[in-house]
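Appendix B. Chain record.
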Amino acid sequence: MSKDSEPKKSTKVITIRIDQELNDNLDRMKDRMGITKNSLIKNYLELSKYFLKRKSTIQSLNDRDLVVIKRSFVRNLIERLDETEQLNFGDKLGRFINDIARIYGKQEDLPFKIDFCDNLGFFNNLLDERNFVLVEKKFGPAKFAEAFLWRLFEQKELNPNYIEEEMKGNKSLRQKYKNQMKQLDISSSHYSYDFARIDKES
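Structure tokens predicted for this chain:
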């Protein structure tokens, strides 16, 4: 089906009244970003699909309180954790995304979950030509990313023994880790794993 013959999405026109101070701020922001005011407002409205903005709080779609902080600050904190804690943190974050997906009946919908990660600022929604997910390494250390992606794709906890302290001198465990967490050499600046692939049917 050509793009010209694809049905257009239904749209609605909404009208709201805002004070002059907010209007002036929108004008400054659209000039700063180099976009139209209409596009700026649409971008903000799109955020309602990913979190709740109440009068004085920001909450996730499963009613968890959120804060906005620099991504680099979070990454630095995670990098200071030992590998066991990195695995735990990655697993908890994966559970968080899965819980939201479950609320909306999207537990098995991997494109939905990856798009959600993108819009929350975790990492860009990027796939290679074979539909393997590419996660920027600035997302966090490898153990954290592995536990997160394993929970996201496999919906279970990654083996807590997959840390260097446990695998050192244990050839059987290390081989099991390499087989299960088969790394792909797609991009030097991204994590990619054999299990983290989105089927075309998804």
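Further analysis of this model is presented in Appendix C.
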